[in-house]
Structure prediction request, 516 residues.
Amino acid sequence: MSQNEEVHKILVEAGSLLKCYYEEAPKWDEKGRFELVSEADLAAERLIVTRLRSAFPGEAIYAEEAGEDAPDYDRDATVRWIVDPLDGTANFVAGIPYFAISIARERDGQIAEGYVYNPVSEELFYSTRSEGRSYLRDDPITVSETADLGDALVAFGFSANMDAIRKYYARWGPVFERCRKGLAVIVPSMTLCNVARGRLDAFIDFGCSMEGQAAAALIVKNAGGVILNYDLTEHDHRNKGALAANPHLADVLRHHAT
Amino acid sequence: MSQNEEVHKILVEAGSLLKCYYEEAPKWDEKGRFELVSEADLAAERLIVTRLRSAFPGEAIYAEEAGEDAPDYDRDATVRWIVDPLDGTANFVAGIPYFAISIARERDGQIAEGYVYNPVSEELFYSTRSEGRSYLRDDPITVSETADLGDALVAFGFSANMDAIRKYYARWGPVFERCRKGLAVIVPSMTLCNVARGRLDAFIDFGCSMEGQAAAALIVKNAGGVILNYDLTEHDHRNKGALAANPHLADVLRHHAT
Prediction:
């Protein structure tokens, strides 16, 4: 088991900060819910960026909100941290304790370390490329063995938005209809980790960002899972969208993709 | 603040039991995920029913699975406990820490006490009819003040199931399209509590069971919210489905219902 203790500490600290905002009741007379979540997002990101910078001086950091602290994704950097301080903002606002911090360390364009942490359930998933295994807390994890679509639990990355639903249905109609249960989830990082852990058999998301998928992609791979771009080409975390499954289900999905 | 300490203790105990099952990795060679969740469900229910029986002798208990321990819902009983030992089984299986235990005490056909507990986030919501207030842990809660659909966070009770989605869309198309954000959630008890707490502005569910909504209906009402049957008639927890919102949004939803 090899994990980066420094990153672990940063996750726990940033997680405590997010939890403070999460547990706070929205103040209707002062600011709306969505301002509160932006504040939480920004505060967590600032903490993470500052702490990464001091722990790993000279390494590039990419994070969505940080502005000058985090220059745009720079393809020339050898080592780069990719940070999503709050994946699952809508759940965070709605009082649903399924959101996560995602931190990945990229080396020469490939994810070398991945960390995904839910501060409410205190689930920390991580993996390092050099070791080639994935963990939840200290336990090694592996993908499920479900081979039959009729037994499969499949998550789709959509909220109650008819355009997105129609888009999934047009392409994945048979999977929608035939899987044992389909779930609509909007937290790519943690949901990919639940594929890695064998709780879900597959996750199909056409819209997830690089920050949401970078760390978890490595975790899926090193748990024995298959991760692809949404268009079924070889996975590159810099693309939007991703598709992950256990190897049996990945074949089934390839077959069903239209 | 008036809560039933005995019920609180039962919830925490049953919650610990559920958490053990939740954290356990599914054992693929022994039994499937869905057998595991039935086992968790049944074990939690057995614990709750046994403990309620000994704490409140002579009071009827209705629970879905318990068989002889819990005879069918009996309309003649004056006092009756309505138990959902695990609302949100699909989330439980999928590794999503958004599920709950729901316990309601009915007197003369009306909910007198309601308790909803998420054992992972340790959020306990409760309300008693006599006091007329609702609480999260020890803090009083109230519904949101959002009046404009364009600002509203609305939850719909569906998973990735096209029939259910089409049914919602046919009736609630404009709400789907115009709300600030729509979420698909499948944990009626806890989601109603998130309306009570002002995190969500509305929840629309055509299928939720009596066990899933009984306790939370009181919690919504006593937090200043509106709860109706899915067909917009006066709420009766014995009906399938429910619609809850803050009073402003309830008017908007009445207007949009077709």
User: Anything to note?
Assistant: Chain A touches chain B through 51 residues (CB under 8 Å). Residues 123 and 146 of chain A are 23 Å apart (CA to CA). The helical segments of chain A are 5-23, 33-55, 89-94, 162-178, 188-196, 210-221, 247-256. The radius of gyration of chain A is 18 Å.
